[in-house]
Specification:
With 355 residues, this protein is of the alpha+beta class. It is 50% helix and 16% strand. A hairpin with a 2-residue loop joins strand 8 and strand 9.
Length: 355
C-alpha cells in the first residue's frame, strides 16, 4: 500500500493552512475547513470516517510546522479512548472541534497502565469520586472534556469529569517545549461518570498508547524532515573559506547520514500507520518500532541541525532550538525509546537485554 492522491491533497491543504497560521490560531480553521478534529471519528458521530493514514498525514504536517494545536491530545488520544470504550456520547463535540478533549492517565512519569494509582470510589449517593494526581496531560489546562484513568475494585477504569468540577485543580506546567502544552491535574474527591466497562481501562489504554505512538512517529518524521531541509538549505548558502560549507566532504557525510535516518524513520512510521489502518494483530510491535526509531532519528537530526548551523543554531531567534526541544519532548512522551524496545522484546518473546 502507498499514500494515495487524496492523501497528498490533504497534505497540501494542511501545509498551506499552517503556512498562513503556524500558531495556536490554526486549530479553528483546521477543524472548520479541513475537518481535522474528526478525521478518525465515524460518520454517524459527525466525523469524516477516515483512519490512521489520514491522521498520519496531518501529524506529519503538524510536526513540520511545530504547530501548537491540540490534535494529538484531542483528535487522537481522547477520541480513540472513547472509541475503544464504546462510549460515543461526546464524539460529535470532539469531531467538530467545539470541545477539546484531554486524556489523563500518566502518573509518576510513566504511561504504563500498571503505574496508575488514582482511585475511584462509589459513595453512598451512588456517585463515583476520584482521588489522585495526573501528570503530563496534553492540553489539560484548557480542555473542555477530561477523561481520567482510575482504579476501582474491578480494576483500571475510565471516567469523564467536568473541568470545573469540585475538587479538581488544573495546573499549567512550564515545559521545555512550549509548543506542546501540558498540565498537572489534581483530583480530590472529584465526581466522575464511568466511561465504558468497569475494569476495562487497561485494554483501552494499551490501544490508545499504540495509536498515540503511531501518530507521534508521524509527527517526528515530519519535524525531522523539516530539520534536514533547513540544514541543507543553510549548508548551500553559508560560505566559509570561500566555499559553501555544504561542499565540504565532512558536512556532506553528516547530511547524508541525517537523510538516511529520516528515510528509515519514515518507513517505520508509515509501516505502523498501515498496520493501524488494516487493524493488524501485530500493531503493538509496529507501534513500538516506530516510536523507538522515530524518536532517535528526530533527536539525532535535530542535534545535527543545531551543530551544522553553528553559532546561529543556538540563538533564541532561530528555529533550531524549537525543533531540538520538541525532539527531546517527543522522545519521552509515551515512554522513552528503550522502554518501547523492551515492549517489542516482550511481544517477540525475547529478553530485553539481547541485541
Amino acid at each position: 500500500m502507498r499514500p494515495t492522491g487524496e492523501h497528498e491533497e490533504l497534505r497540501s491543504a494542511v501545509r498551506a493552512l499552517l503556512a498562513r497560521q503556524p500558531d495556536a490560531s490554526a486549530w479553528r480553521p483546521l477543524t472548520a475547513q479541513i475537518g481535522a478534529a474528526g478525521l478518525a471519528v465515524p460518520e454517524e458521530y459527525g466525523g469524516a470516517g477516515c483512519g490512521a493514514l489520514e491522521v498520519h498525514v496531518v501529524m506529519e504536517e503538524l510536526g513540520r510546522a511545530l504547530a501548537p494545536v491540540p490534535f494529538l491530545g484531542s483528535a487522537v488520544l481522547t477520541t480513540q479512548a472513547l472509541l475503544a470504550c464504546g462510549d460515543p456520547a461526546r464524539l460529535p463535540e470532539l469531531a467538530d472541534g467545539s470541545v477539546v478533549g484531554a486524556l489523563a492517565w500518566a502518573e509518576n512519569g510513566s504511561w504504563e497502565p500498571a503505574a496508575v494509582r488514582t482511585e475511584a470510589r462509589r459513595g453512598v449517593d451512588g456517585a463515583w469520586r476520584l482521588t489522585g494526581v495526573k501528570e503530563h496531560v496534553l492540553d489539560g489546562a484548557d480542555a473542555g472534556l477530561l477523561i481520567v484513568a482510575a482504579r476501582t475494585d474491578a480494576g483500571l477504569s475510565l471516567f469523564e469529569t467536568a473541568p470545573d468540577a469540585r475538587g479538581l485543580r488544573r495546573e499549567r506546567l512550564v515545559t521545555m517545549d512550549s509548543t506542546r502544552p501540558q498540565a498537572r491535574i489534581v483530583l480530590d474527591g472529584t465526581v466522575g461518570r464511568p466511561v465504558g466497562r468497569d475494569g476495562d481501562g487497561a485494554r483501552v489504554l494499551r490501544r490508545v498508547t499504540d495509536l498515540g505512538c503511531v501518530a507521534l512517529a508521524a509527527e517526528q518524521v515530519g519535524a525531522a524532515e523539516r530539520c534536514l531541509e533547513l540544514t541543507v538549505a543553510y549548508a548551500r548558502e553559508r560560505v566559509q573559506f570561500g566555499r559553501p560549507i555544504g561542499s565540504f566532504q565532512a558536512v556532506k557525510h553528516r547530511l547524508a547520514d541525517a537523510y538516511v535516518r529520516v528515510e528509515a524513520a519514515r518507513s517505520a512510521a508509515w509501516g505502523a500507520a498501515f498496520a493501524a489502518a488494516e487493524g493488524a494483530a501485530e500493531l503493538s510491535r509496529f507501534a513500538a518500532v516506530a516510536k523507538s526509531a522515530c524518536s532517535e532519528a528526530f533527536s539525532a537530526v535535530a542535534g545535527e541541525m543545531v551543530q551544522l548551523h553553528g553559532g546561529i543554531g543556538i540563538t533564541w531567534e532561530h528555529d533550531a532550538h524549537r525543533y531540538f526541544k520538541r525532539a527531546h519532548g517527543c522522545g519521552q512522551l509515551f515512554g522513552a525509546p528503550a522502554r518501547h524496545r523492551e515492549r517489542l522484546a516482550a511481544e517477540l518473546g525475547l529478553t530485553a537485554g539481547r541485541g
